[in-house]
Amino acid sequence: MKNALITIAIALFASACANSPFGKKVSEPFSGNAYESNNRFFRATGKGESSSDNIARGKADIEAKTYLAGQVNTTMKQVADNYMGQTENERGADVAEKFQSLAREVMNTDLADIRKVGEKKFYNEKEKKYTVFIAYEIKKNAMFRFMKKQARVNQKIDERQLAIIDKILDEQIKQSEEGN
User: Fold this and answer.
1) Residue 133 bridge partners (DSSP)
2) pLDDT tens across 14-24, in order?
């Protein structure tokens, strides 16, 4: 009798979990901590669907790179804002604007040291549709070093601004290498 009650309780619990108001939980490729950004890496994933495998791959690629570029842009904006907040220099806004402009230029040309960490392709026979998942990462310190190089060739940045941008980027490189 006691075993029967336990079995019924387990069955009721299992059926209640199966009928979640949110639907069935889906596990997609490249999910979890290993594919999320942290102190050392910018990371992003993308998903694309199409009846053509090349188009599905292209959509996944664009989605992942767009998300990655957004993370880099947000980080650079925060770094520039922190610089302006820490310095009470009237020219701080000018340096911060140059820094953000440099970040935009870097992202518009190339994301430095981007690495594909995974790609998976699925074909749904019933819907005749491909689904592609892609995961990318960029080492933060490599991105910051690339920005330093780009700042040196930028004609719009004077020596004083270059020294400040170098200092800001050196701090970011140090933080990414320490993992803080």
Assistant:
1) 47, 120
2) 555 555 677 78
Domain locations in the chain? 28-175
pTM of the predicted protein model: 0.73
Where b means 16+ CB within 10 Å and e means fewer, 35-65 reads bebeeebbbbbbbbebeebeebbbbbbebbb
Phi, psi of 85 (to 5 degrees): -70, -30
Q: What do you get for the CA distance between the two ends of the chain, in Å?
A: 57
Distance CA 43, CA 132 (A): 17
Whether the pLDDT of residue 80 is over 80: the answer is no
CATH number of 28-175: 3.10.28.20
Average pLDDT, the chain: 80
